[in-house]
Amino acid sequence: MQNQATETVDRSHMQVSDEIAIQITKMNKWYGSFHVLRDIDLTVHRGERIVVAGPSGSGKSTMIRCINRLEEHQAGKIIVDGTELGSDLKNIDKIRSEVGMVFQHFNLFPHLTILENCTLAPIWVRKIPKREAEATAMHFLEKVKIPEQANKYPGQLSGGQQQRVAIARSLCMKPRIMLFDEPTSALDPEMIKEVLDTMVSLAEEGMTMLCVTHEMGFAQAVANRVIFMDAGQIVEQNEPKEFFNNPQHERTKLFLSQILGH
Amino acid sequence: MQNQATETVDRSHMQVSDEIAIQITKMNKWYGSFHVLRDIDLTVHRGERIVVAGPSGSGKSTMIRCINRLEEHQAGKIIVDGTELGSDLKNIDKIRSEVGMVFQHFNLFPHLTILENCTLAPIWVRKIPKREAEATAMHFLEKVKIPEQANKYPGQLSGGQQQRVAIARSLCMKPRIMLFDEPTSALDPEMIKEVLDTMVSLAEEGMTMLCVTHEMGFAQAVANRVIFMDAGQIVEQNEPKEFFNNPQHERTKLFLSQILGH
Amino acid sequence: MTTMTDPPGQGFRLSQLIYDTRYRSLTIQVVAMILLMLLVSWLVANTVTNLHALGKDFDFGFLTQPSGYDINQRLIAYDSQSTHGRAAVVGILNTLLVAVLGCALATVLGVVAGVLRLSNNWLVSRLMAVYVEGFRNVPLLLWIVLIFALMSESTPAPSAFRGDTPSASMLLDGVAVTNRGIYIPAIHFGAPFFDNGLYNWLIVLIAFAASVFAVKRLSRWAAVKQEATGDRPTTWYLTLGILVLPVAILFALMGAFLDLPSLQGFNFQGGIHLRGSLIALWLALSLYTGAFIAEIVRGGILAVSKGQSEAAFALGLRPGTTMKLVVLPQALRVIIPPLISQFLNLTKNSSLAIAVGYMDARSTLGGITINQTGRELEGMLLLGLFYLVLSLVISGAMNVYNTSVKLKER
Amino acid sequence: ATLDDVKARGTLNCGVSTGLTGFSAPDANGVWQGFDVAVCRAVAAAVLGDPMAVNFVPTTGQTRFTALASGEIDILARNTTWTFSRDVDLKFEFVGVNYYDGQGFMVPKALGVSSAKELDGATVCIQTGTTTELNLADFFRVNNINYEPVPIETNAEAQQQYLAGACDVYTTDASGLASTRASFEAPTDHVILPEIISKEPLGPLVRHGDSEWGDVVRWSFNALVAAEEYGVTSANIEELSASAGDNPELNRLLGAEGELGAMLGLEPDWAKKAIMANGNYGEIFEKTIGEKTPIGLSRGLNAQWTEGGLLYSPPFR
Amino acid sequence: MSDTHAQTVAYVRDTMTEQREPPLSQTGAYKWILGNMLSTPLNVILTIGSLWVIWSVLSHVLPWAVLGIWNADSLSACRAIRTEIYGADASVACWAVISERWPQLLFGFYPPEGYWRPVLAFALFIAAIAPILFASLPRKMLWLTVASPFVMFWLIWGGTVWAPICIALGFVIGWAAIRVAGPRIGALGSILLAILVPVLYWVVIAGPLASGLSAILPIGLDQVASRDMGGFMLALIIGIAGIVLSLPLGIVLALGRQSDLFLINKVSVIFIEVIRGVPLIVWLFTASLLLNYFLPPGTNFDLMLRVIIMVTLFSSAYIAEVVRGGLAALPKGQYEAGAALGLDYWKSMRLVVLPQALKISIPGIVNTFIGLFKDTTLVVFIGLLDPIGLSNAIRASTEWNGIYWELFVFIGLCFFIFCFSMGRYSLFLEKKLRREHR
Ligand SMILES: Nc1ncnc2c1ncn2[C@@H]1O[C@H](COP(=O)(O)OP(=O)(O)OP(=O)(O)O)[C@@H](O)[C@H]1O
Ligand SMILES: Nc1ncnc2c1ncn2[C@@H]1O[C@H](COP(=O)(O)OP(=O)(O)OP(=O)(O)O)[C@@H](O)[C@H]1O
Ligand SMILES: [Mg+2]
Ligand SMILES: [Mg+2]
């Protein structure tokens, strides 16, 4: 499950600035009467690479989706890049175009070619000329190593390739923050590596990343903080080394023993 | 990938007779204008256990499917059990009931129970009384070690069990020749062994078998000839030991290095 | 191919006809052919005998004889002295008219109801469910009759517009909604270019088509501009101008004026009369088919997974843009084939016009004409042929669309 | 021959309207009642001796002629107008006229119209599939006035449209107008205009080419008319037929004298049975559509010739 | 709780937060109304619009329906009662027509003492299709399914019991022909034989045999003529007969359309397209006006039978398309496995392909049935007394002349109940199939 490639990351230049990218305070969310997120407090600095782990149903996805308002939170505050997320549509639009998101099931648009997938949002949201958008898209497609597929449709690509396109698509909006929700869990083992490699190279460039994943190898290699969630709360957070070698909380220990023992 | 169980086969009594079971001469087949099988010559003696290997698309399945006329060949001769396979329906019917076939995807009849799957053809083709057909079916189900599932439906069985039922179903027609088309490639690793074991025990009983498979362990343990196909032709054939240790042809070498190295 | 499959020289045996795969299919087809011919000739022979016994012949001459009956709803000139053939054409045009109108309205209703049924507004989505289930599960014939009756009872009679204190009044002084239908203003020309009114309208139509073409060019230009600069220039006022001005100028040149309907004698006169029977049939067909279309639309939208719109939102696209660029193009692929088969159904169902006395092809050619002339065989044959051709044209269009979509997918 | 078929079958197949008030309609028990129905019953009684041995086949304006031509029914007694083309071109044989009708107009009193000639521009509801459309077209063309026809399939719909004011005028045969008006909540608010624009002799008809059967139906019907003329009613018929009286025609009619029945291929008392089925013509009229019924038609043209009407049975001899 | 800094990253929660109730804005009727009906300005408008629609419909319909008069023997009596209770201006329904005539609307003119017969027949029908729809029922019940058409026919039309038995015997003879001749002359020949022999039997022997047997042993029910049947019973008979009879024909057509024999394929395609391209009402007129032209002179059978024949041909084209979908949904491996086991075309169709394809097609067949059942209303145009036809007939009686809405509302309601529940059932089946097919 661990990938050797990720071990080679050179962490020296991955600087964390003091600037705050995301600030969540006392955020609460309910689904009906079910309390999914409870008093979440989290500050993410620019350039941080945070891995969110936790058992299924603990609210990881929900938390991440609250950050770009795919879900609405009911109490507390979320400030992204200095803009508070409320019901103000303008703020939501602003934040969404600053924050990229990659889903478990890629969610590429099947009726558009790879290139069109990547240029859609820049053209319609950022109002970038098509030619320019395409150049940017090709640049990022090269970065994720599939420029030659630009004119194919998503259905013609393998899962790993599709996920890399999804990453490229997000990057085309030049986001300052990237959210990943289990980007590799729908992939076959061979394909996981190619996607993780892409994420690693992103991390190397200093992108602020918040990543829900079960790839502990990736967490150890790239993250500068691991957050452990359970029952809608942040139970523990620490540097990866500490987190894995010396978990404090009972639940963390239990979780790690299951994940790593397996 | 190799199965230890197969190593235990006692080959001493697996006699090959002089009688010819299948004789293929200069057989050619086209799909439209695409030449799939080119001048295939192959003689199978009664009691032989032949493994057919080769890269994907090399025509292995097509060759095997020509033998019981699931595909029509356009030139050359196929004689099965002394009957020539031509356009005469009676011969086709005769050969089909002499030759059993096991597919990659089992192709059990989902609307019939295991027992009904096994008795269908004996009752309707061989016109055997139902009671008798059921007794035979139970005998073969015991042989493949799932008599207790007789009244379940295929959907309720695991892949390995289904494939064993498929083998039993073929055996119930008391075929003199069995064809296998990648019987284990749709199975999870744990299940591969149980199916291979069944095939080994069949081989031990002296069944004439023609088996497309990538299970090289099986080939080494059971086959008395390995045939290597590429681009619609038989490129090389030899005894398993010679074939694996001392391949002659370039393509065989390349193929073996990929298969075994992997 | 060098060798033959079978050794030659074995000679042909009769049993090969059945047991040889090469001849077998031929045998079966020949037998089937013979049986078919027998059946057809049997039917034809019976028909000939029966016709002879009845002293009738097979003759389409009746189409050229005067029909003797009037048709209220007609798109071409017709009176009771016109021929049965012309009556049939009037009926066919009426069928096409209600079919086209019905398809358009049914699509609108279906799309609205389908989308609203997915609305998060509980009340609205329930209401739409009631509409859909109610219309789908009661025979169309009942709906046609009920809507016809409902319309005539809930709208005022022309007499209600009469008198010093009328109980009903015209909308905007030009539109009268009565239980005989709706009267709307018509446009006439004071100084027409041609005496034949049709040509004048043709000119207007050509001008309008040219405008539409120009608008298309304009939006192409805007798209190119957007590709180049990223910003789409605002063109709506230009669009409006191009669409309206040429036609307006033409109207002015030809001295167009509005012919307002006004109450004279028993009825409103002047203007255009949309008859109650047409409206009732149109509404009933549209509401009924719309209920089916609503389900198709709902299914199509649901078929586009939620992930698609979420991905679009996450990229910063607005809901409207998401609908336009992401959801609709995908949903349409699912929606259009069944939609077209609903259009087909609607067209066929328009033959129920008989229930409200709308004179469609079935009521003229297949109804009064047959009844007056006793030419059942000829009349029904023509009628069946008409519907068949219509269906084939529609389903042909559907096939063309399907293949074009399939090609685009891969 | 049809007569033999009917006798062999034991029932008479009689085509009637799917429902026309007073002329044919099933009652709550499913038994068909009405003026046209009575003709069928009389024929059944004459031929089979049982007025109830009738299969009523409901037909629509569209299907009635085919049903008769194809032999599905033996008689069509469905207020069908006797016209040249139906008789000659469609190849049927009208055996008589059981109701002399004519097409008329009904308008609401409030319109203030007193003659059909004042109907210029009016909207007219008509029932399709009959001669009505043709008469209407002719009438308005001859008088050179405009109208807007609203063709309606059934009487019920037409009635509903007319009452809702969707048409100014309702036109159909005068008998239909009367019965329709009788069902209104306020019948007096509507008037039937004096113009009768057509002759509508309604009568039963049979196929061409089987004159024997035509004779049976014709004379069964004539027997009803003659019975009224001679004062034979269902009340006194037993008595009159018990012994030969002094009116030879009556004797022949009731089978006491001559062999009229045998000539038709029927029992001697065929006419007696026909009359006993529902009474004579006058009785049938009174029971089904006469002035005492809600429909309230007066005899008018349908009175005996002796009383100034058109009913005139040829002599039984 | 302390702020988490990049420098002092480590954090461990000591006490777990308990699940709390959501804020008021998140629960109860308040949230529900706010969230579901008033969340955006557009939603507010929609809500108000809906309320207006509901109000305007209910305020007209409810008083009319609820205050309706149930006891009267004619429309004028109804009106008198209304004037007495509510005054002359009130508009209330006269449900009395329903309470007086409902047996007629349901059964037509079927003799009242025989109502149990159609009821029993339909109960039998339900029992007969149960083993097809629910695989869990014992297979023995399929015998009931096989027998039911004949029993139903006998129950509804009555007459001697020997007629249906002798007809059924024809099928037995056909089956026996296949059994006996099959091994000798092959599948194709025996199928021809199995068609020829029973047809000969029906034409030549069945009639005399039945009358002979009934002369010896007269068992039977009172005969009821087709024209005495009407109302919903008629609609059901036509619908059920149409679907049941069209099933074999539809399957043959579907197989024909799949066939790669050019002629067979084209004939099937043409048949299906012609039937589907022309409206049912035109076919019904054909049945009533033209069928006699096509049959030998002198043949004459009743209109209902002709309609059933036409409806059968009509729905067979639709069933064929449904079955074709089912056939296409089967993986190719099933055909191949059948062939590899030595089953010939007909056997593998009968034993392997069709059982599966038909099961997949059941929801589609149910939907076709719903459509057909609704379409039976069109027979009113050719003079059959279906519910709508009967409503016309009822209106033609002097008591009920002038009544309008009540009859239509009642008929519509009956149709709705029937079609809606069938539709739900078909949805349920579809879901179940999707579950099983994963
Ligand atoms: N739309 C919804 N409505 C109601 N409950 C929901 C909804 N979405 C999620 N939940 C519930 O909220 C809880 C948290 O869900 P979430 O998807 O955030 O978990 P997760 O930590 O991402 O789990 P996983 O690892 O399985 O993705 C779960 O119990 C889930 O059942
Ligand atoms: N029905 C068909 N029509 C056209 N081409 C076909 C068809 N079936 C197979 N082929 C082609 O024939 C070639 C041989 O196919 P075949 O299935 O025999 O290969 P194989 O050796 O069994 O490969 P694999 O290991 O992938 O099963 C392939 O190139 C394939 O694309
Ligand atoms: Mg999740
Ligand atoms: Mg293969």
TrEMBL record, chains A, B:
Pfam families: ABC_tran
Signal peptide boundaries: none
Coiled-coil residue windows: none
GO molecular function: ABC-type amino acid transporter activity; ATP binding; ATP hydrolysis activity
Sorted UniProt keywords: ATP-binding, Nucleotide-binding, Transport
Domain spans labelled ABC transporter: 22-256
Membership in a protein family: Belongs to the ABC transporter superfamily.
Protein name as annotated: L-glutamine ABC transporter ATP-binding protein /L-glutamate ABC transporter ATP-binding protein /L-aspartate ABC transporter ATP-binding protein /L-asparagine ABC transporter ATP-binding protein
Organism name: Salipiger aestuarii
From TrEMBL, chain C:
Segments crossing the lipid bilayer: 26-45, 88-116, 128-151, 198-215, 236-258, 278-297, 380-401
Example of a GO biological process term: amino acid transport
Pfam families in the cross-refs: BPD_transp_1
Gene3D superfamilies in the record: MetI-like
NCBIfam families cross-referenced by the UniProt entry: HEQRo_perm_3TM
Species whose genome carries this gene: Salipiger aestuarii
GO annotation, cellular component aspect: ATP-binding cassette (ABC) transporter complex
Keyword tags: Amino-acid transport, Cell membrane, Membrane, Transmembrane, Transmembrane helix, Transport
GO molecular function, one term: transmembrane transporter activity
Subcellular location: Cell inner membrane; Cell membrane
Record-linked SUPFAM superfamilies: MetI-like
InterPro entries linked to this entry: AA_ABC_transptr_permease_3TM, ArtM/GltK/GlnP/TcyL/YhdX-like, MetI-like, MetI-like_sf
Family to which this protein belongs: Belongs to the binding-protein-dependent transport system permease family. HisMQ subfamily.
Name of the featured protein: General L-amino acid transport system permease protein
Topological relation to the membrane, as annotated: Multi-pass membrane protein
Domain ABC transmembrane type-1: residue ranges: 92-398
UniProtKB/TrEMBL annotation, chain E:
Membrane-protein topology: Multi-pass membrane protein
Recorded GO MF terms: transmembrane transporter activity
Keyword Membrane part of the UniProt annotation: yes
Entry-linked Pfam families: BPD_transp_1
Compartment(s) where it occurs, according to its Swiss-Prot or TrEMBL record: Cell inner membrane; Cell membrane
Keywords: Cell membrane, Membrane, Transmembrane, Transmembrane helix, Transport
UniProt GO BP: amino acid transport
All residue ranges annotated as the ABC transmembrane type-1 domain in the record: 232-426
GO cellular component: ATP-binding cassette (ABC) transporter complex
Regions that span the bilayer: 44-66, 115-134, 162-178, 185-210, 230-255, 267-291, 303-323, 357-383, 403-428
InterPro entries the UniProt entry points to: AA_ABC_transptr_permease_3TM (IPR010065), ArtM/GltK/GlnP/TcyL/YhdX-like (IPR043429), MetI-like (IPR000515), MetI-like_sf (IPR035906)
Similarity annotation: Belongs to the binding-protein-dependent transport system permease family. HisMQ subfamily.
PANTHER family: INNER MEMBRANE AMINO-ACID ABC TRANSPORTER PERMEASE PROTEIN YHDY, MEMBRANE COMPONENT OF AMINO ACID ABC TRANSPORTER
Protein name: General L-amino acid transport system permease protein
Species this chain originates from: Salipiger aestuarii
